[in-house]
Please model this.
Amino acid sequence: MVGHFEARRLAEYFGRNQQIHEGILVVARNETLMVQYRSLATQVRRTWFVADMTATCCNK
Model:
């Protein structure tokens, strides 16, 4: 993750971040938490997309 972040490869960074958090939820086996996570993750992905687009656009 650090390498992706330092290289400004935000799509890869955010993807790895999501994999880590989903893995934690699978191990926790907490269905209520998983439902809440999936709901919030949709909103967060929009924010990640905007952040990635901003970084791509403004770092040229």
Summary: The first helix runs from residue 2 to 6.
